[in-house]
Amino acid sequence: MVQVDIFWSFAIGAGFAASAAKQLEKEEKPFESKAFIKNLLWLSIFFVPSGATLLWGFPAWETMQVGTYENIPAWLVALFCGTNITQGILGFWVTYRLIRARKIYAANLMWMLGYFCMFFILVHGWDGTGYQRFLYSAKDWSGNYVPWTPGSYSIRWVYSPVAVTLYVMGVIMMPFLFRWMFALMKEDYELIRAEEPEVESPIRLRPNIGLLVFGYTLGPVIVASLLIHWLGWIFGSGIFVVIAYFALIRRGGLVHAEISKFAPEYAK
Question: Cα 6 to the chain's mean position, in Å?
């Protein structure tokens, strides 16, 4: 989705950098590193074409029900495709700078921040109807087009044309993303283990990564959305920030504890 991919591409770039943190610590030319090349390849070979395909095939869904063939300008298409790469580069670069500054915990928070923003748009959006816009396909298998209206969504979306397209894309795209990231993490592990033999292999810690992505980003997003619905943007988001900081983000919090499992020194 146009509004979502800005944050997802940032998270992907930050994730590639964080996966190769030990390798990037002394890297003077980050844009020539193996991690950056893999990041750029995945974004350009898989991410941009997938987004362009969805925008062409399902313009209403891809723009969260605000665009159609008739009102999407050509420059927006170009901007969308471009930012799907530039945001990934930005995420990589910001994370790399934090790694170079030995702020590894903050570096890992970058990809989590990207996923948090991505999930927030999907769940809440800008008006509280993000999940409704996501779970609605304006085009059915017969080709009929019915514009979205507030309150229109259904679990039947899971077998809609856009959902099936996403499944096919995921089968093609995601194995490359996971394989390349875990390959970088494995190389990092070998470097870290030479200094800290007790560090667990990242392969064994794959469930922890899933917990960080879905438990500690998607979960808090749902809580934030509920608080905003109940208390409004100011009080709801304010209370959420306080809860998230003390329960998750601060040193000693749940997120800090999970990231520490990958390498004790990297939690600094």
Answer: 9
Answer yes or no: are the C-beta atoms of 92 and 36 closer than 8 Å. yes
The CA distance from 221 to 118, in Å, is: 9
Amino acid, res. 35: A
When pLDDT is cut at 50, 70 and 90, the band that residue 190 belongs to is: confident
Asked if residues 1 and 75 have their Cβ atoms less than 8 Å apart, the reply is: no
Band the pLDDT of 241: cuts 50, 70, 90. very high
- Residue 203 pLDDT more than 70? no
In angstroms, the first-to-last Cα distance of the chain is 35
Rounded to an integer, what distance in angstroms lies between the CA atom of residue 92 and that of residue 104?
A: 13
Domain boundaries, the chain: 2-199
pTM above 0.85, yes or no: yes
Residues 6+ positions from 117 with CB-CB distance below 8 Å: 7, 10
